């Protein structure tokens, strides 16, 4: 049997025929089969259309207009409500005597073309071929778009992940110098995220805070070992030099266009400010201190107290919490201290999670 090139490319597409007249269905089936189409399904009961449409997933519908139970217009209306707006699903109307008005109505409802009875085989094949060709182009286009969207989404996610990992690794750089465990940054940032969430930050801000807070002490990179790693108390001069880490860190992070680094800048600059105005570098007071920095201040000190440092041993959780409570309204934002106390079980949970196993980047 001779197959035109066109049919060869389209013969795998699925054609559905719906006509209440069974002999019409058979004639059409035979004509299409003889032309080489391989997937043809005929039906006569229009009430089954949705069921068949969903299970058979046709690429083209040959549809009769006048039928019992549900006529062709109702079928089109129903399909229109079912099929996605953007989906190109061609419908070829089978009509015996078509007046202008019903043609217009059919076109409005989504019909693409018409074929008259009695059927002329070459006309039928031409019209079916044209619609299937369009359908195939549409399907390919949709597939390409989906692949493209998928790729863009993957790239974006990968890029974001890379950025976050770099930021975290940068945060850890400082830990390699001033302590052994490597968990301070992880605990601190998770405490901060938990406290931020409980204080009413939205999820996006919480995520930014989780990452941005890892850089709070980045300025310590510039502090010499004999100060940073000094086993005992710092003298006033050394303390002065140590305090410069806030401004140095801010300088390293300033003028960023990304929200996360902007937040990291704010935190690095202001995490040693105190609620009563006695902190550094600027002696800001109360709500003049950015909220994220007030959050990090509580979490940083809690973790410093409960950790061993070259200059101090670790305090118990209870002693550390008591110290935070005693400094409420002095060092710390009293409202945040209250919230910290309320979520203390969650804080301790984080403390446990980031104390015995290796830091896992997430
Ligand atoms: P860090 O060890 O990460 O401590 C962060 C903050 O936690 C300190 O900020 C302080 O507010 C609080 N903190 C830490 N340990 C204690 C403590 O034993 N008692 C009380 N009440 N608070 C504590 P601060 O004071 O501005 O210090 C900033 C950084 O300077 C510290 O970061 C640490 O790296 C260094 N540092 C501070 N004091 C000493 C010291 O006496 N000896 C040495 N070697 N380093 C110090
Ligand atoms: C870390 O440095 O691992 C804590 C930050 C995070 O897990 O996002
Ligand atoms: C807030 O300001 O959003 C509440 C937490 C605080 O800053 O005390
Ligand atoms: Fe600091």
From TrEMBL:
All copies of domain Response regulatory, residue ranges: 14-132
Modified positions (4-aspartylphosphate) in chain numbering: 64
Protein keywords: Coiled coil, Phosphoprotein
GO BP annotations, alphabetical order: phosphorelay signal transduction system
Native species: Ectobacillus ponti
Superkingdom, natural source: Bacteria
Limits of the HD-GYP domain: 159-356
Pfam families found in the cross-reference section: HD_5, Response_reg
Protein name as it appears in the record: Response regulator
Coiled-coil region(s): 131-165
InterPro entries, A to Z: CheY-like_superfamily (IPR011006), Cyclic_di-GMP/3'3'-cGAMP_PDE (IPR052020), HD/PDEase_dom (IPR003607), HD_GYP_dom (IPR037522), Sig_transdc_resp-reg_receiver (IPR001789)
């Amino acid at each position: 049997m001779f197959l035109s090139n066109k049919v060869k490319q389209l013969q795998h597409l699925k054609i559905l025929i719906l006509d209440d007249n069974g002999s019409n269905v058979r004639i059409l089936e035979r004509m299409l089969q003889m032309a080489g189409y391989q997937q043809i399904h005929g039906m006569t009961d229009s009430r089954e259309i949705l069921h068949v449409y969903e299970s058979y997933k046709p690429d083209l519908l040959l549809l009769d207009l006048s039928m019992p139970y549900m006529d062709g217009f109702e079928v089109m209306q129903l399909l229109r409500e079912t099929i996605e707006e953007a989906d190109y699903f061609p419908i070829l109307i089978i009509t015996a005597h078509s007046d202008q008005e019903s043609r217009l109505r059919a076109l409005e409802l989504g019909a693409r073309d018409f074929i008259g009875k009695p059927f002329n085989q070459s006309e039928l094949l031409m019209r079916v071929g044209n619609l299937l060709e369009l359908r195939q182009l549409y399907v390919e286009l949709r597939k390409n778009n989906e692949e493209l969207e998928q790729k863009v989404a993957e790239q974006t996610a990968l890029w974001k992940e890379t950025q976050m990992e770099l930021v975290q690794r940068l945060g850890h750089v400082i830990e390699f110098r001033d302590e052994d465990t490597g968990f301070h940054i992880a605990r601190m940032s998770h405490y901060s995220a938990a406290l931020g969430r409980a204080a009413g930050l939205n999820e996006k801000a919480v995520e930014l805070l989780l990452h941005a807070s890892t850089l709070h002490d980045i300025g310590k990179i510039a502090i010499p070992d004999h100060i940073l790693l000094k086993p005992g108390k710092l003298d006033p001069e050394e303390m002065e030099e140590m305090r410069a880490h806030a401004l140095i860190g801010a300088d390293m992070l300033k003028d960023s266009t990304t929200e996360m680094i902007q937040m990291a800048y704010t935190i690095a600059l202001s995490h040693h400010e105190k609620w009563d105005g006695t902190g550094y570098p600027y002696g800001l007071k109360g709500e003049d201190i950015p909220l994220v920095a007030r959050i990090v201040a509580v979490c940083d000190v809690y973790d410093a107290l409960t950790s061993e440092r070259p200059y101090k041993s670790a305090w118990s959780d209870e002693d550390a919490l008591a110290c935070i409570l005693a400094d409420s309204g002095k060092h710390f934002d009293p409202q945040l201290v209250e919230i910290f106390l309320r979520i203390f079980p969650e804080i301790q949970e984080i403390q446990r999670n980031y104390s015995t196993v290796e830091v896992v980047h997430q």
